[in-house]
């Protein structure tokens, strides 16, 4: 479903409580793990059980805390199933896999705390992991859980000497670290991260500290060695990162210079190494910077204090008053200087550089690193330098053309604000840049790369709202609230509209001075902004009533959305302008901007995209002013009338640029015509409309048709002379048109104008008397039907009675349109249009009872036939039309067996499915009035190319044939109907081929009545003759192949029958056909028949199987001799 669909509502919501049914099912699935493996389970049962468990957990992926009451119970059950032995059992592996899924949903930090961490588990865990390290079983999730389990156990401050016979704790630590290091050599997976945690935990222990120096030396040498090996370099960086994060700072400071010198060659970050290595390098450099700085309470940072919602809403003072951090800033600077200024500068430089990395994860990590390091800077001046560098290097001219720079800078500003290190004095510099980021778009051809920037800008404002006191934010609130409102209403992406709505909600909730904040929260909430069309057409109108936002909304629409790169946004922006200006009094503003837009529309320097937006916006503004009865100055009206004429050279271009302008001019003419302005030269517009109606682009033709309909209604109905000249043009074009698009255009304009008899006859003749040049013009015939349908519904009863004969002849002829092209069955558009026209005419036209009595049943027959054909949409259309006729009082009482049809044709959409063909069986059995039509539809489907429909139709036909094959009267009717339909369809390639595809099945199930002597049925004899005639007169090899297939089934008839001898004779003649493929097919069919016969001639079988019938070099005389031997033996 498109998000612009007016019925498009909430596309998703989050659970706010755990479903008790889910709780019980999760318990049951976990308890059954042991039972499943206790017997001999099938892989299917195991997989289904785990997939259901995973599916239930992932329902709460967004709010996993709802599962907190259930998770401990699940963990206990699963842990009890695990037996820590060298070779884990299937139950143990499955239980670990279930725990791993919990880690994915709830997070490993939460799950690992619930695992048992008694010291007695250390040895079993080590033995199990040692076995797994050598095992080739690819169950990474189980290994990951075991490593996490080992990590939590190693965190216990027990004495490791208890686990070594020699009493040396180094042996145990070495063993643990060797096991973890073994897993680091694997390809990237979650086990590597868990293994690095185990290593860092060993080194952070008191008994592991002496190993730090040697281990770091080896690790740094390994990093240098593995510079060109991505897999091993990533493993080494993960270990280094874990050490820098988890080992105490006092133990790492002595090695800081060494680490810095050894890894400096990896910087600046090479993006070719990939996002994982890039992210690790950013984390490493920020951890080095953090170690170089002492942990301290940042005295100079902004402290808002305790924020109580009750106090804020009641205008009371906060419990802890906000301090003005900008005053006396130097008094709060720490006296201690920087111990490692070079390392800190190096760290900040590379983190700031990483803010413009091409990978989102790297930029996000760099932003967090900036916030963490800046919090530890001892002097506010240092922090100001960092922030100024971000603003100058990422928000200036560089950020204007790079989404990476702007996105990284926004993330960094948000992190700095959240930590209080973005001082209030800098807001005046930062907020204008953030406002620009809210509308940032980096155009790249037919798309843009600005989504992340706008999302990050919303995050920045969200952080500002939570961080700063309302008194500090007061002077910025109007601009921020207006910018957020425009983003929430008009952004192209639904997730960004939601992000802006959430940020506005935070702003209105935390900052008490937001204008009309509470009122707007209900209008522009998270779910209301889901539907973009509703935002542009309804919600923005309600928001525009507030003075604070109205001008911002109008400016945003005019400056950003009217010239947006997306065509749909430009159209919606014009509609928004119209709706706002209709309801609210912005007449002066509209007149001023209208003058500007009119000039922009005709300027040669205007780009095609902007011209498109200006034309549509101009039309909508004119319509709004007309609705408010505001007079438009004469000079502007004159310019409006000249726009389509001036733009003629632009619309005549055959390129995509010309296509865009033609669309916009069509919309402009429609909108200005609806305003009903009496423009001086708008009579010339009809010439442009007629030209657009002949366009090769279907969308432009439809837009031109809509424009013509409005233009004729408001400006042309009183001008009979002009109407007559257009009708004469239609008559000439329809009679001697040489282009399909010209005919389509004339049929479209004919739908709108009051037709005369000559034009009506000309339109009907395009279907009744097609010429050789227009046989493939199915689209033109479709529009011809629409034109005569429109005329028939609008004419008087006397006129309808006069044209009814030719009208229905045309519609019935259209029902037999099976035109095919490279696009497939394009005739279906004609058939569908004909069915829609038939039901509309019978229900809505001024039909007398005699006409209804004559044509209702015939129309129903045609529709029933189409309801059995192979194209799903055609079946859906036929079902819809039948349902409408049944529900119509005047037509329903004239339909035979109406109750049977009512029960079958209930839901049109269901008929898209092939299986619905079986629902037509009652029509075959109980409705003789529709027997011929339903049978023809089934045959056409059974001989089609669509595999699903073909199988279903053939199965239905087979069931019907077998049910009547022993009833001579019913079977004769079936065969005679098939014969009659086959005879009628000889000139129709598609239906003839369908019959010949289905006939082998019919001949293979003749039953007791005709199996022995099929010539008793005249229908069978005639069908065989028609087949032979059709295949002989056709140059297509496929027809001759189908003939052999059909005749091969007749070889199963009685050997004394004439049909059998005739079929055998034709097949024997095919053995010497000039086409090798036919010789081979005839030999195969004859061989298959003889193998199943009661008496088998071995010589014949040998000749058929050993002769190379497909050899193109073989002499025909030799094959004739072989065929004579076969015929002689068979005789």
Automatic annotation (TrEMBL):
All residue ranges annotated as the Tubulin-folding cofactor D ARM repeats domain in the record: 277-518
Gene Ontology CC terms: lateral plasma membrane
Domain Tubulin-folding cofactor D C-terminal residue range list: 858-1034
Pfam families per record: ARM_TBCD (PF23579), ARM_TBCD_2nd (PF25767), TFCD_C (PF12612)
PANTHER family: BETA-TUBULIN COFACTOR D, TUBULIN-SPECIFIC CHAPERONE D
Family the UniProt entry places it in: Belongs to the TBCD family.
Protein's recorded name: Tubulin-specific chaperone D
Species, as recorded: Caenorhabditis angaria
